[in-house]
Design brief:
Mean pLDDT: 88
Strand content: 15-25%
CATH class: Alpha Beta
Distance between the termini: 64 Å
Order of helices and strands: HHEHEHEEHEEE
Radius of gyration: 17 Å
Helix content: 25-40%
Length: about 180
Amino acid sequence: MMDVILALLLVVAVALALSVLAFQAITGVPPLSARRSEAANVIALLHEAGVPERAVIYDLGSGWGSLVLALARAFPRARIVGIEWSPLPHWIARFRTRRMPNVHLHRGDFYARDLRDAQAITCYLMMKPMPRLAGFLDGVLRDGTPVVALAFWFRGREPSAVRGTGTSAAALYHWHHDGAK
């Protein structure tokens, strides 16, 4: 009986790992987890941008929920919306945020979501989706909406401010549809 249980656990573990790899292949982005110092940089830039305490803040590609948790703590009166396509990271993030009433997690493709109510956007993705994301945000965000990109920045756009260094740096953009500052 113990062998059957162990075999089932192994099958489940392999299936979960393969699902993470499959969604990474589809999106070009592995589920990333922001370190505390990186999340602190993102939060500092959002405060610098004047994001109101009751804002609607989206975290695109919310992964395991690290940045969503930090945002929820830093903006306890805000509505924090995380969107993650990969099932395993999404469900782990749901578990991690289960007692946070200001967090709303959605599983799916953020390109298919209506983000027009966003008062701020955060993302920790990879270089591959950034050009497409820029075009998508051009179509949905109001001019001046704060967008903070962690580690992977928008090419051809000048950030308003930067915090951190190297691959841990976060960049703040006040979104403009033409890409200009």
